[in-house]
Amino acid sequence: MSIIFNSPLPNVELPETSIGEQVFRHAGVAPDKVAFVDGPTGRSYTYGQVEELSRRVAGALVARGFRKGEVFAIMAPNLPEYAIAFHGVAIAGGVATTINPTYTAEEVEYQLNDAGAKYLLTISMFMDVASEAVTHSDVVEVFTIDESPGATPFTALLNAEPIDQVPVDPHDLLVLPYSSGTTGLPKGVMLSHYNLVSNLAQGEHVLGLEDDEVIVAVLPFFHIYGMEVLMNGVMYWGATAVTMPRFDLEQFLSILQDHKVTRAYLVPPIILALAKHPIVENYDLSALRQVFSGAAPLSAELAAEASARINAEVVQGYGLTETSPVSHATPPGRFKPGSIGVTVSNTEIRVVDPESGVDLDRNEDGEIWIRGPQVMQGYLNKPEATKITIDEDGWLHTGDIGHVDGDDHFYIVDRLKELIKYKGFQVPPAELEGLLLKHPDVADAAVIPIPDEEAGELPKAFVVLKPGHEADPEEIVAFVGGHVAHYKQIRLIEVVAEIPKSASGKILRRVLRDRERDKAAGQA
């Protein structure tokens, strides 16, 4: 029998509409209110300007032959223009695929081809990578937000005639962020207008901003957390976002102080800096009302330490790219140390024993399953992977182990799936293992997470060398590093005699993790 835990929060209305109709709802009533400010330069756009320019981008794309359902790639840091491009694509009836700008050309090319992108927007800093990546893709034109040889200036799209929303069904595809699985390469997560609109509405009782609030948008917009909670969320609530193209602690603290930021959506490594870095004492953070942590686990101890130091509430939530992303968050006044909060409105949860498949009750640890309007349509071009993740009854199997207490608060205690979380970014062990096996001296390999206070987890590789071969471990690390983004780099490596495997040949990463845990305990 299924034991379903419903949200303790009231249900909310889920509009059947396009994303634009929701995020531009303030443009009509407060067109002169500032929506986005570029932190380093102070360049800003009002709500009226963001809507007008988004419609112009849509008009320019349609005039170029861009059609409903086609894919436009954005590979840029957090800039106000990101939102204009994103919503221009949405108004044109297109699909945005958001690419990590620190990717290698190899990684960018894979995503462009897998998503079927026709256009790419970037900045001059990444043009070399972009130019190499599009060579073997279907991209017909590259745009840059700033001026760059070999690319069309983004400003060329801002001079077109604005158009109204191209008619879309709310369940039409809107965005394709990429999420790393435990096997193979990253997968395109198919999220519709309805998914993102629903998740904005579901934040009413947990993430609701007042329209006088200012947030700092330092988490990348290419990541679903930054895209939905920050870029779209700030517009949905009518607040102001100060964007940061890259994280720098002093600049971050200056923005908090100078812009009187009221709420900061962060990840644990930044919260660690707020708790421990001496420079924090030099800044006035008194306007800060709340810090919200997501994307990776935050310990109760670190949350308490940071909260005491900055005199603001530090809470956390939980979500996945596959859930648009928020499924759990902490409502005002209901913080519990170590908890990811309660289930958001209109969402159901089951806690299931991963071995027996039996539903578990309160205070029993099992795999968290989620069902709700924010659950993705599936993985692009990967029906088998979709079936593994979402069952026939619509339950998304998160791969995370946790429980719910008597107050409807959830806690994540372990991961069934084997993704490594480095500073909030997903690092798939299988991708790194595949690269290791391409090294001429490596016969076998396995990669596991190692706990780290600053990063959360570090990828550690275990390699078996081919008979008669010798290799410098650092050279192997450098070999892998040449093929992946900085956050996927192997940080530790150990040469071993064999990799533990099951009878069917599956790598037993848990055995390696247990060995490392025992080793660490013995050294303590």
Can you lay out the helices and strands and say which pair or pack?
Layout lengths: L4 E2 L12 H5 L10 E5 L5 E3 H17 L7 E4 L5 H12 L3 E4 L6 H11 L1 E6 L4 H8 L6 E4 L7 E2 L19 E3 L2 E2 L7 E6 H10 L11 E4 L6 H14 L2 E4 L5 H10 L4 E4 L1 H9 L13 E4 L6 H11 L2 E4 L1 E2 L6 E4 L11 E3 L4 E5 L13 E6 L6 E2 L3 H7 L6 E9 L4 E7 L4 E3 L2 E3 L1 H8 L5 E11 L3 E10 L7 H9 L10 E4 L13 H15 L1
Parallel strand pairs: 2-13, 4-5, 4-6, 6-7, 7-8, 12-13, 12-14, 14-15, 15-16, 28-29
Antiparallel strand pairs: 1-20, 2-3, 9-11, 10-11, 11-22, 17-18, 18-19, 19-24, 20-21, 21-23, 23-24, 25-26, 27-28
Helix pairs in contact: 2-3, 4-5, 9-10
**What is the average per-residue confidence, as pLDDT, rounded to a whole number?**
94
Uncertain ranges: none
Give the helix/strand class. Answer: alpha/beta
Distance between the termini: 44 Å
Q: How many separate domains?
A: 2
CATH topology of the largest domain: Rossmann fold
Kindly state the percentage of residues in helix.
Answer: 25-40%
The CATH class of the largest domain, by name, is Alpha Beta
- How many H/I helices? 14
Strand content: 15-25%
Shape: globular
Q: Identify the strand order in the major beta sheet.
A: 1-20-21-23-24-19-18-17
CATH superfamily of the largest domain: ANL, N-terminal domain
Rg, nearest Å: 23 Å
Strand tally is 29
Let me know the largest β-sheet: 8 strands, antiparallel
Gross CATH architecture of the largest domain: 3-Layer(aba) Sandwich
